[in-house]
Specification:
This protein has two domains: about 200 residues, Vaccinia Virus protein VP39 (Rossmann fold, 3-Layer(aba) Sandwich), CATH 3.40.50; about 80 residues, DNA polymerase, domain 1 (Orthogonal Bundle). The N and C termini lie far apart (about 45 Å). About 45% of the residues are buried. Helix 8 crosses helix 9, helix 8 packs across helix 11 and helix 12 runs parallel beside helix 13. The protein has a seven-stranded mixed sheet with strand order 3-2-1-4-5-7-6, with helices on both faces. Helix 3 links the parallel strand 1 and strand 2. The protein is an alpha/beta fold. The protein binds S-adenosylmethionine (SAM).
C-alpha cells in the first residue's frame, strides 16, 4: 500500500500519539503484535508499514471491524481482524493459535467515527438515540437513565464523570423521566445543561455525565483492568505494552498497574520513605517512562482529541505472571 492510500484510509480518525506508540513497540520483521483497539486502523497500519510483521487487531464494535476489511485486504496474511474485547485477548488470540506476542497497543475510549455517527448516541451535540453501546448489545444509556435509582445515578455520575454537581444532575434526570422516559441524546444534554453552568474553560456541562454513562454502559474500567492482566499473560519477555488513556480514571489504573507489576514496593505507611527498588523476583514489567508521554503542542493544535492523551509504556520481564485471569493474584 502506498502512503496516499494509507492516509485516505485513516482520514476519518486521526490517531493520537501515533509515532510515539509505533516507536515504543518498535515492530520488527516476523514480530507479532496486538492492536487491542483497532478503530480506524491507524496504529495497525503504522505497525504493518514499519516492518514485515503480523498484527492481530481487536475491536468490540462490529461496524468498526467491518470497515477494517478493506485494510485487511491490503495486508494479506499479516493483518488478522478479531471481533471481541481486549479484556479477553488471551482467549481471542489462543483461538487463533497465538500464545505470545511482542507488543500490545491500547488506545482507549471511542473513535471519532463512533462519536460522529449520531445513530450511536455518544454525542451530546448531535441528536440520536440514547444508546452508547460499542457492541450494540446489552444495557443502553437510555436503560440506565430510565431505570437506575437516583442515588446510584448520582454515584455513577460522580465516580465515572467526576461531576461535582452529580446529585443535582441525578435529581433532574429522575424528575424529567417521570414526565416521559429518555430516548434521545439531546434531551438528556438539555436537562443536564439546565442544572450545571458551563465552566470558564468552555467545557460543555453534558460532557462529564455522558462520559460517566459511556464508561458504565461499556464497563470500560473493568475492561481496562482485564486488558492489562491479559497483556501480562500474552507478552513475551522484552515485549512492550503501550497504553494511551484520555482521562484520569483510566490513567490512574494504568499507572497503578505498571507501578505494582514493576515491583515498586508500596509504602508501609504514609510517613515512611517510598521504596523505589523494584523487586526483581516478582516484577513482570519494567516501566519505560517515569512520566506519561503527552502529545506535542503541534499535535494538540491539529487534533483536539489529543489534548488529554497520556501514553504509558512498559516492557515485559521474564518473570512468570502470578495473575489469574478474571481474578486477583494467584
Ligand atoms: C480511540 S479508538 C482507536 C483508534 C485507533 N488507534 C486508530 O488509530 O484508528 C478506540 C477503538 O477501540 C474500540 N474499543 C474500545 N474498548 C474496547 C475493548 N474493551 N475491546 C475492544 N475494542 C475496544 C472502540 O470500539 C474503538 O473503535
Amino acid at each position: 500500500m502506498n502512503a496516499a492510500e494509507a492516509t485516505a484510509l485513516r482520514s476519518d480518525h486521526i490517531p493520537v500519539l501515533l509515532n510515539e506508540v509505533s516507536k515504543a513497540l518498535a515492530p520488527k520483521k516476523g514480530g507479532r503484535y496486538v492492536d487491542g483497539t483497532f478503530g480506524a486502523g491507524g496504529y495497525t497500519i503504522a505497525l504493518l508499514e514499519a516492518a514485515e510483521c503480523m498484527v492481530w487487531a481487536i475491536d468490540r464494535d462490529p461496524a468498526t471491524l467491518a470497515k477494517g476489511e478493506v485494510i485487511a485486504k491490503l495486508f494479506p496474511e499479516r493483518l488478522h481482524l478479531v471481533k471481541g474485547r481486549f479484556g479477553d485477548m488471551v482467549k481471542l488470540l489462543s483461538e487463533q493459535g497465538v500464545m505470545s506476542v511482542d507488543g500490545i497497543a491500547l488506545d482507549l475510549g471511542i473513535s471519532s467515527m463512533q462519536i460522529e455517527d449520531r445513530s450511536r448516541g455518544f454525542s451530546f451535540l448531535r441528536d440520536g438515540p440514547l444508546d452508547m453501546r460499542m457492541e450494540r448489545s446489552g444495557r443502553s444509556a437510555a436503560d440506565v437513565v430510565n431505570t437506575m435509582s437516583e442515588k446510584d445515578l448520582a454515584n455513577i455520575i460522580l465516580t465515572y464523570g467526576e461531576e461535582r454537581h452529580a446529585r443535582r444532575v441525578a435529581r433532574a434526570i429522575v424528575g424529567a423521566r417521570q414526565e416521559r422516559p429518555f430516548s434521545r441524546t439531546l434531551r438528556l444534554a438539555d436537562v443536564i445543561r439546565a442544572e450545571v453552568r458551563r465552566s470558564h474553560d468552555g467545557i460543555d456541562p453534558a460532557t462529564r455525565t455522558f462520559q460517566a454513562l459511556r464508561i458504565l454502559v461499556n464497563d470500560e474500567l473493568g475492561e481496562l483492568e482485564r486488558g492489562l492482566q491479559n497483556a501480562e499473560h500474552l507478552l513475551s519477555p522484552g515485549g512492550v505494552l503501550a497504553v494511551v488513556s484520555f482521562h484520569s480514571l483510566e490513567d490512574r489504573i494504568v499507572k497503578k498497574f505498571i507501578k505494582t507489576r514493576s515491583g515498586m514496593a508500596s509504602k508501609p505507611s504514609r510517613h515512611a520513605p517510598a521504596s523505589v527498588t523494584p523487586n526483581q523476583d516478582i516484577a513482570t514489567f519494567s516501566a519505560l517512562s517515569r512520566r506519561p508521554i503527552t502529545p506535542r503542542d503541534k499535535e494538540k493544535a491539529k487534533n483536539p482529541r489529543a489534548r488529554s492523551a497520556r501514553l504509558r509504556i512498559a516492557e515485559r520481564t521474564s518473570a512468570p505472571s502470578l495473575i489469574t485471569l478474571g481474578g486477583g493474584l494467584a
